[in-house]
Amino acid sequence: MRVVIAPDKFKGSLSAPEVASRLSTGLRAGFAASHPAEGFETTLIPVADGGEGTLDAAVGSGFTRRSATVTGPTGQPITAEFAVRGKEAVIEMAEASGLAVLPGFGDGSAPNTETARNSTSLGTGELIRAALDLGCRHIILGVGGSANTDGGAGVLQGLGALLLDADGNELPAGGAALGRLDRIDLSNLDVRLEVAEFVLASDVDNPLLGRTGAAAIFGPQKGATPEDVAALDAALAHFVRVLAGEIGPEAEDAAQAPGAGAAGGVGYIAIAALGAARRPGIDVVLEFTELEQRLAGADLVITGEGSLDEQSLLGKTPMGVARAAARSGVPVIAVCGRSTLSPEQLTESGFESAHALTELEANVEKCIAEAGPLLEELGKHIGVRLSGNSQSQAPTQDSARTETKEPLHV
């Protein structure tokens, strides 16, 4: 029997590679308990939806992890990683410009109004340049978890542009300062961008400006007050007008494009200045991980994420994996920390079943703290059930459906 394990991270507990590894250990133990002589193979394919975890998915698919010293969201030097395979690079912008790399993040001091107004995406531009230095010409930009609301102005700066005020002085970092922007000098923009292709991996379809824009929708998550939101939105609108004066009306069109509001507006500059094609993050990840090709010959797929809920049904990782499994005719089940989906919703989404850590431990905080051991235990129970389905050959899809439909009893 061969099982493909293709989960996303369990946010706050385990990375996707850790989830896959823990499940594999439990599955093998559970299957071997009843059939020690029978073959059992697991193929581990960590995946993500284009945001945090995309880098891990790339490395798990044969990319090489690289690093560069770049400018963090508040100007501090940090070491950020990206992934390279031949002339292809995967950049997870949260590595360079994310909330998680803000100084003091997690101790209550960040994010706040100051970081909301002044955080920059400069480090993401510097990561792109590092990838170009290594010869990469096809660059996937996975966005999500950003600290900035600067419209991607920092990305432009990282690639050689100068943002100048009326006195010819370079603007300080951050979205709020864009209100004082007078002109953008693109004369030193990296010439290699002319032959590079960019993909914006994002599920966010918000425009850059207005009531559903980057500042209004995502600014408060980054510490912005209502006053900050108004100031940032006005500054971004001014940035668009100035950029349009430099590159033409396509800059204004790009501000309304779906996805322009992603990652504090990094989506905007990717579309307007880098010519990026926006694609759903999960589709991009499943493509470079070659999930569908690696499903050939599999008997079961297991996917999942920390919380399986209504949000999951809107195109997040489990749904993308389920669709790929359906196209390959392979049954799929989900594992998660907790699930709020009904059996009908699971069936309609293509899942045979879902198994949650809360089936083993009712205390959610304990599930988060002890996710690793609990996942192994959950995997063991699934493995035992699979062994009951396997005589001398793998189960049919119908038998797998019958077996996995019932909840686990522990």
Automatic annotation (TrEMBL):
InterPro entries: Glyc_kinase_flavodox-like_fold (IPR018193), Glycerate_kinase (IPR004381), Glycerate_kinase_RE-like (IPR018197), Glycerate_kinase_sf (IPR036129)
Gene Ontology molecular-function annotations: kinase activity
Compositionally biased region (Basic and acidic residues): 400-410
Signal sequence region: none
Comp. bias regions, Polar residues: 387-399
Segments of this protein annotated with the region Disordered: 387-410
UniProt entry keywords in alphabetical sequence: Kinase, Transferase
Family named by the database record: Belongs to the glycerate kinase type-1 family.
UniProt-recorded name of the protein: Glycerate kinase
